Amino acid sequence: MKKTDKADILTLLRNSADYVSGQQLCDRFQVTRTAVWKVINQLKEEGYQIESVSGRGYRLVEGPEDILSQSEIMSRLSTKWAGQKVYYFDETGSTNTDAKRFAEAGDPHGTIVVADIQNAGKGRRGRSWQTLSGTALSFTIVVRPDFAPEKASMLTLVMALSVAEAVSEEAGVPAMIKWPNDIVLNKKKICGMLTEMTMTPEMDEIQYIVVGAGINVNINSVEEFQEEIRRTATSLKIETGRHMNRAVLLEKVLNRFEKNYEVFLETLDLSVLQGAYQEHLQGIGGEVRVLDPAGEYTGISRGINSRGELIVEKEDGERVQVYAGEVSVRGLYGYV
Ligand code: BTN
Q1: What's the structural domain count of the chain?
Q2: Cis bond before residue 149 (omega within 30° of 0)
């Protein structure tokens, strides 16, 4: 039986209000009863509660469990290309590093790598990224665009918007973006992103880009974070009091990302997504400090332009377009 069949059986069970008979599963997947029985047992071992009643068949009892596995992820996806190939690891170094390896080996546009634990997770600016087991959603998507390399930095903003939208939908509270791509809830960080681009050997075209995101989902208390980030980090659970299913959240992020990416491709800038992005942008109209290596300054955030740059109005009225690669921006009060 194929791996996709296992995911499809899960989808079928999840979407059936009633029992699904063994015969129905055999006919549908063109396999023997023993093969069906084996898959049901594997699913049970993975933590699913499946009732088997003789004469009626199988029924999935949806519980509070938060199972993250290749079948669970595949069984929920309804996208065209985002997640068309899924790698899942209980533990890995970094999903970005894995995704680059798979892209290098020829895996298609939309391939995703998801891990429960990363023991060498990478943050921006060479920092490390802590991934707590069983509680975070850490994933990377491979994209193979044919646009010019200078457009690539906007992809992180496309992912930031997608995560903000998905989290807002799932959590029922507005998730905000700390420009360019941290996601915050109640002004504390719940998600960071890392985009890495690989060029063709001739260095004139993009070969592939990997966009990785780490979302703090079910962390119970700030004590679980490393000391240095306790003041600024939080999780969906801490902020909403609710335990969330990470596979459902991933499904929502990928749905949004696929849609937003296609909108982005139409104009190759953020002109169409700008409004939605700004609805989630933290601190428009508020004071920000731009930590520019060439000289720091303070101004008022006026949102982003169509290239995703932050517009900062200085005291003398001059408007500066801040490019994300060079500088970081802080609110005057605290982290955002
Ligand atoms: C940051 O805010 O510094 C960026 C953090 C990015 C973390 C994610 S988790 C999934 C992917 N794999 C990595 O090694 N890093 C990114």
Answers
A1: 3
A2: no
- 180 Cβ below 6 A of ligand 1: no
Confirm whether 130 is domain-assigned: yes
CA of 154 to the centre of ligand 1 (A): 17
Kindly state the average pLDDT of the residues 25-44: 91
The CB of 127 under 6 Å from ligand 1? The reply is yes
Same domain, yes or no: 293 and 273: no
> Which domain, by its residues, includes 327?
287-331
- Does residue 157 contact residue 270 with C-beta atoms inside 8 Å? yes
SS3 306: coil
Q: Which tokens go with 14? A: 């999840």
Of 306, 304, 303, the residue nearest 267 (C-alpha): 306
Rounded to 5°, angle at Cα 246 from 76 and 218: 165
pLDDT digits (tens, 9 = 90+) for 35-64: 999 999 999 998 899 999 989 999 999 876
214 is a domain residue: yes
- Cβ-contact 258, 81 below 8 angstroms: yes
Q: Does ligand 1 come within 6 angstroms of the Cβ of 160?
A: no
pLDDT of 327 strictly over 80: no
- The structure's pTM equals 0.93
Instruction: Verify that 78 and 206 share a domain, yes or no.
Output: yes
**283 close to ligand 1 (CB < 6 Angstrom):** no
Q: At 130, is the pLDDT very low, low, confident or very high (cuts 50, 70, 90)? A: confident
Condensed to tens digits (0 to 9), the pLDDT of residues 210-245 reads: 999 999 999 999 999 999 999 999 999 999 999 999
- Find out whether the beta carbon of 274 lies less than 6 Å from any atom of ligand 1: no
Same domain? 259 vs 320: no
Q: What is the CATH number of the domain that holds 18?
A: 1.10.10.10
Q: Is the pLDDT of residue 333 over 70?
A: no
Residue 336 lies in a domain: no
Question: Residue 95: inside a domain, yes or no?
Answer: yes
Residue having the nearest C-alpha atom to atom 11 of ligand 1: 212
